[in-house]
Amino acid sequence: MRNSGKIASGALMLVVLLLTYLEASEPEPVNWSPSYLESDKIPLGTFVFYESWKETASSTIEDIKIPPFEFLDQAENGTYFFLNNSLLFDESELSKLLDWVSQGNDVFMSANVFSEALLDTLKLETGIRIPGTDLSSQPYINLVHPELQNKEPYIFEQDTELTYFSRIDTINQTILGVGNIKTFSKPQEAYPVFIMSSFGEGNIYIHSFPQAFSNYFLLLNSNYHYAQDVLGYINNDNLIYWDQYYKTGKTFYSSPLYILLNNKPLKWAYYFVLIGSLLFIIFEGKRKQQPVPVKAPLKNQTLEYSKTIADLYLEQKEYRALALKKIEHFQDHIRQRYRIDTSLTNEKFYRELADKTGNTEQETREMYKIFHDIAGKNEILKNELKELNEIIESYKK
User: Fold this and answer.
1) How many other CB atoms are found less than 10 A from the CB of residue 83?
2) How does pLDDT run across 191-221, given as a tens digit for each residue?
3) 287-338, pLDDT tens digit by residue?
4) Residue 238: which domain range?
5) Helix (H) or strand (E) holding 173
6) What is the DSSP-derived secondary structure letter of residue 248?
7) Beta bridge pairs of residue 177
């Protein structure tokens, strides 16, 4: 790699490392997800509300992690507390919950969205307040009881919608809290956001602004008084069942990388590994030398050459010359394989050759006699050449 290429690669790596550092050091954006989980410290978590209530409540707060349909079979008398952005009970579960309430128990529900079955049963309808002409969408809420009503309404200083009850059963239900959207002018009317409904021997408390129990709202100004006053309606001498099943923010481990990517140090270590692997592929993955070409070895053309020469002799009818070549080739075969000197054909030669080839001494003598006869002739016939070939091949076998 040339010097200019190395400089460019180094500059690119520095830029990547700088961008990675800036991304890692940048503060994480505020998570406004509606969690309502008692362990979450994000703005719409309920860590502050849950821990404060546990410290001040005179009764025991029991965490319920299973659906109400399963839990109510073993539940004792008390108050079931639901807090989430939506509470969508099906008809069978709602029927079981209302039967439990009718036996003298209480249920507190706070959500933006309620199931149609619940609204129909309690003869309720909901509406949504939207921003006014000034585009403000910061809800305010307050209680209506003279001793609990704050002089200035409690404001949620973030733009969001406000769910309210547009129709209630005024005979069986009582308005406990109201709210509206903050505008630049003083609000002239408020809408029900917190009601109580008698049901059998128990009570159902329904609250349509769950953000009022979030970390953000409670830590803003003196808004925590609102949550305290709301809990004043609940009988704190009863056992409190805190629902953990209907929670949008409850943990679901849906990916093997969940723990890795939700831990900031591990997440950036994982990113560095990916970046390092990419850089290695780009700069080090290439071959550093030219590939060595594969050259096929030279073929042994001896057999083809011999066949070509033999064909020439046959074509020219040079049977004697071809026979002499055949004899010479056989002699060479003896020298190469058996290490016997063929220059002297005496008694020792015949005996040694016969012993090493497995033939008889008589067969060896007769074969060499034919060799001498052919060498002494000027010409031989084609049949004589054929007989010579048969004798040599038979002797080799």
Assistant:
1) 24
2) 999 999 999 999 999 999 999 999 999 999 8
3) 555 667 777 777 665 556 556 656 656 666 677 777 788 888 888 888 888 8
4) 47-243
5) strand 173-181
6) T
7) 143, 194
- Mean pLDDT value across the chain: 84
344 shares its domain with 306: yes
Write out the DSSP string of 81-120.
EEESSEE---HHHHHHHHHHHHTT-EEEEE-SEE-HHHHH
The secondary structure of 59-75 as a DSSP string is S-EEEE-S-HHHHTTT-
Sorted by sequence, the CB contacts under 8 Å of residue 141 that are 6+ apart come out as 153, 154, 156, 177, 178, 179, 193, 194, 209, 212, 226
Q: How many domains does the chain have?
A: 3
Compute the Cα dihedral for 206, 210, 213, 217 and give only its sign.
negative
How far apart CA 209 and CA 360 sit, in angstroms, is 119
Residues 203 and 227 both lie in one domain: yes
Residues 6+ apart with CB under 8 A from 145: 176
Do 88 and 113 form a contact (C-beta atoms < 8 A)? Answer: yes
Backbone angles phi, psi at 142, to 5 degrees: -165, 160
29: amino acid identity, one letter: P
